[in-house]
């Protein structure tokens, strides 16, 4: 998998967990305020996008389906550890491919957590059983549930460039169903086409307006624009001195406030990862339990520098 290989531009860097290539102390991040726990529902997806960071497809089951019982066991651990979790996020793959998606969401909502499901709003979500389950969740929990829809670009031809012809229209159909049934929606877009932040937000605002979607294009929490992950770009290593130089705090970085649980194919039990961005890097596996996952994370990957410390990436902002 691509995360296991270091791009040549970074040769010699990101080798030692504690020390950078020039001998400085590598920065680390403590789990200072765990607010979001992510579950990867499985890597299977109904489509195969050009730039899917987790390499999902209709055949990739490297991460297998999570179950409602497994989710419940982690919810028990949150309570036992006293983590101040506010939100449970579900990502994939396409979460609605997982037959237990509704049960998993209900398990979290029934304990008072907010739930965020990332989806392409296409056929898996639109199956009769999923729509019926979603309507029940809406009736029981209303605004505690948000669906964040991937709309790579507000122009259909650019969205379809990533996701294959006709995808935009199918996603739009799903969004209209969510709109008509009063679901809370957010959108995740990409900045791969080089639009400025202002241009992107203006484009999404017009798209929402045309379709009557109650989504704020100016709110980065409701319209999340993701930078592209260029695996070959040269990036600096983050040392303990960088926080002061960049005027940034370790508490701002995603792994200070979240973890992601995945289940690998063939593994006897799920495992907890430092974050959502590095699903295939063994060094960022922290253990099977939330207790083990409380340890500090050493920023020993180009993504740590490029997206989190220098770029400010967040999956749930
Ligand atoms: S819809 Fe999402 S999970 Fe599926 S292939 Fe595309 S980016 Fe990956
Ligand atoms: S990629 Fe970001 S969130 Fe993940 S371990 Fe590195 S700094 Fe933390």
Strands in their spatial order, largest beta sheet: 7-6-5-4-3-2-8-9-10
Radius of gyration: 19 Å
Q: How does the helix and strand content classify structurally? A: alpha/beta
Total DSSP helices: 9
Shape field: globular
Low-confidence stretches: 1-7
* Helical content class: 25-40%
How far the N terminus sits from the C terminus, by CA atoms, comes to 27 Å
Attached small molecules: iron/sulfur cluster
Mean pLDDT: 93
Order of helices and strands: EEHEHEHHEHHEHEHEEEEH
Write down how many β-strands occur, each being a DSSP E stretch of 2 or more residues: 11
Give a short account of the largest sheet: 9 strands, mixed
Quick take:
This protein is an alpha/beta fold and 317 residues long. The chain is 29% helix and 15% strand.
Describe the structure.
By secondary structure, the protein is of the alpha/beta class. It has nine helices and eleven strands. The chain has helices spanning about 70-80, 100-110, 125, 130-140, 155-165, 165-180, 195-210, 240-245, 300-310, and strands at about 30, 35-40, 85-90, 115-120, 145-150, 185-190, 225, 260, 270-275, 285, 295-300. The strands form two sheets. Strands 7-6-5-4-3-2-8-9-10 form a nine-stranded mixed beta sheet, with helices on one face. Helix 1 (about 70-80) links the parallel strand 2 and strand 3. One iron/sulfur cluster (SF4) binds near residues 29, 253, 254, 301 and 303.
Supply the key terms.
two-stranded antiparallel sheet; 317 residues; nine-stranded mixed beta sheet; alpha/beta; binds iron/sulfur cluster; 29% helix
């Amino acid at each position: 998998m691509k995360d296991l290989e270091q791009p040549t531009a970074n040769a010699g860097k990101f080798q030692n967990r504690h020390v950078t290539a020039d001998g400085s102390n590598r920065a680390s991040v403590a789990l200072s305020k765990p607010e979001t726990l992510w579950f990867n529902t499985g890597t299977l997806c109904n489509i195969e996008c050009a730039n899917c960071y987790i390499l999902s497809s209709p055949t990739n089951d490297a991460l297998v389906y999570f179950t409602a019982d497994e989710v419940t066991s982690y919810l028990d651990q949150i309570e036992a550890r006293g983590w101040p979790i506010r939100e449970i996020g579900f990502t994939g793959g396409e979460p609605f491919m997982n037959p237990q998606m509704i049960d998993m969401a209900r398990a979290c909502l029934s304990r008072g957590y907010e739930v965020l499901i990332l989806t392409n709003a296409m056929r898996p979500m639109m199956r009769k059983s999923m729509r019926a389950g979603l309507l029940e969740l809406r009736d029981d929990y209303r605004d505690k549930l948000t669906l964040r829809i991937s709309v790579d670009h507000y122009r259909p031809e650019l969205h379809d460039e990533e996701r294959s012809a006709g995808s935009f229209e199918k996603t739009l159909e799903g969004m209209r169903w969510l709109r008509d049934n009063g679901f809370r929606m957010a959108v995740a877009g990409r900045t791969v086409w080089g639009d400025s932040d202002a241009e992107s937000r203006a484009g999404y605002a017009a798209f929402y307006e045309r379709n009557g979607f109650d989504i704020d294009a100016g709110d980065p929490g409701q319209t999340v624009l993701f930078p592209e992950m260029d695996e070959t770009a040269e990036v600096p290593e983050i040392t303990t001195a960088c926080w002061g130089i960049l005027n940034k705090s370790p508490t701002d970085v995603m792994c200070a406030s979240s973890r992601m649980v995945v289940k690998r194919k063939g593994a006897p039990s799920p495992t907890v990862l430092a974050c959502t961005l590095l699903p295939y890097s063994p060094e960022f596996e922290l253990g099977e339990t939330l207790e083990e996952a409380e340890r500090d994370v050493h920023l020993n990957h180009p993504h740590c520098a490029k997206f989190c410390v220098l770029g400010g990436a967040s999956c749930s902002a």
